[in-house]
Amino acid sequence: MARIVRSGLIQAKLSLSTENPIDKIKQSMIDLHVSMIDDAAKKGVQILCMQELFYGPYFCAEQETKWYSLVEKFPNGPTIQLMQELAKKHSMVIVVPIYEEEITGVYYNTAAVIDADGKYLGKYRKHHIPHCNPGFWEKFYFKPGNAGYPVFKTAYADIGVYICYDRHFPEGARCLGLNGAEIVFNPSATVAGLSEYLWKLEQPAHAVANGYFVGAINRVGTEAPWNIGEFYGQSYFASPRGKIIAEASRDKTELVVADLNLDEILEVRNVWQFYRDRRPETYDAITNIGK
User: Fold this and answer.
1) pLDDT digits (tens, 9 = 90+) for 239-265
2) Is 49 one of the catalytic residues?
3) From CA 146, how far away is CA 11, in angstroms rounded?
4) Which residue is catalytic, options 52, 72, 182, 223?
5) Which of 217, 241, 269, 286 has the fewest CB atoms in 10 Å of its CB?
6) What's CA 17's distance to the chain center, in Å?
7) What is 4-278's CATH topology?
8) Is 138 a residue of the active site?
């Protein structure tokens, strides 16, 4: 019997303008996502991932300390606790990308992974932090991730997380495959004119090179007063053959759902023996050059 996992991605527009108080923006986005999680449950979704920093705007478009107020402790912050309740209620694995406070003044761009029984399984911290192109000032907000490339054994599949800018680096994508990931989720915030030509190239390529499924999520719309461009949505799932099997629109808040046949992973790896034929003993240059 085929091992099918129904998976979902949520892409969303900012529900309140940035002129509103930060706590109201946050609550509005949480309320929106709770409603969409309920919708996902009605559609039988078993694993769900939301976009990068889902409960606010992409505030890295400016450098203002006021946005530090969005941080939460892991795992006892209110948003994770809420998502634990929803995960248990719906028997759904939920990937929750939010702003993490380790200690006062030390913050990470992080995703929590919650199992279908509501148990907090752990977190992934974004490794690669951009500080380039006007409007992507992430080093002002985030310390680079230091917790490796964990794979989480959930009730339905072994999953990994890679966050936004990480996707430009194949090394971590390989590590997730070597660590046993069957599905890798990449919650993102990326705009037209900068990365759109790469959006449907890099992540299907990761899926092919590593023989796993990829769920790529991007927010939608523009976020005034910043003028960094339009978040172009088009969240999608790619198969281990690199085929896009489900895709959202470029301009609407939307839930995209796909049935992922995890047996396809074995079928592909039996043909393309990339893990067998790796030569890690020859790859020292990857870490030794450019230090």
Assistant:
1) 999 999 999 999 999 999 999 999 999
2) no
3) 27
4) 52
5) 286
6) 23
7) Nitrilase/N-carbamoyl-D-aminoacid amidohydrolase (3.60.110)
8) no
